[in-house]
Design brief:
With 179 residues, this protein is of the alpha+beta class. The protein has helices at 15-22, 24-33, 40-47, 51-63, 102-113, 131-151, and strands spanning 7-11, 67-75, 78-85, 87-91. It has one domain: Orthogonal Bundle (Arc Repressor Mutant, subunit A). It is elongated, with a radius of gyration of 20 Å.
Length: 179
């Protein structure tokens, strides 16, 4: 299977798939596989986890349909499997009311684990936008992310881009406050 055989988009729709992507170790495995296939041993080494742990997480990802075996080769009498993402992008369901946003939790964990001596660009801006401006900004952010995803080269160091454009909750006035 070549990267040309990959689906463009994989929509997470089942509880099994959601559980698979909700785990931080599996999130990091999928990030490794985004640009190049890897074996269970390679994944374990790159993530600094036990080979058995890597194997366990890969089985769950494969069962959920998120990763696929893309090639095999025999090494010292053992069949070695190379895994890759099943699709170029994965779309999660909306978090729902008061539901956890798994992408943001994983992004924050990755940011906290990132080396502090490497350059980072972390910003937060509070904006006041019309709905049209909100929609336009969301589309521009997505287009920018897509543009740079196309430029990604597996031989270069990893970089993560996370953005969240949302309407924050409006605080309810305290009881007894007069308008």
């Amino acid at each position: 299977m070549s990267s040309d055989d990959l689906l463009d988009t994989f929509h997470v729709t089942t509880d099994e798939q959601l559980r698979a992507v909700s785990n931080l170790t599996r999130h990091r495995i999928m990030a490794l596989l985004r640009f190049e296939p890897a074996t269970i041993t390679q994944i374990a080494e790159r993530l600094g986890v036990a080979k058995g742990s890597s194997s366990y997480h890969m089985r769950l990802l494969e069962r959920a349909g998120l990763v696929k075996v893309v090639r095999t080769r025999k090494v010292r009498g053992v069949m070695e499997r190379y895994y890759a993402m099943a699709a170029r992008s994965i779309v999660l369901p909306d978090a729902g009311e008061n539901g956890p946003d798994v992408l943001m939790r994983h992004a924050l964990a990755d940011l906290e684990a990132a080396p502090v001596d490497r350059e980072r660009h972390v910003r937060m801006a509070h904006l006041r936008l019309t709905e049209a401006q909100f929609e336009e900004l969301g589309a521009r952010l997505q287009a920018l992310a897509d543009e740079y995803r196309e430029l990604s080269d597996p031989s270069l160091p990893d970089a993560s881009l996370v953005f969240a454009l949302f309407h924050p909750a409006t605080p309810e006035p305290a009881r007894g406050d007069a308008a």
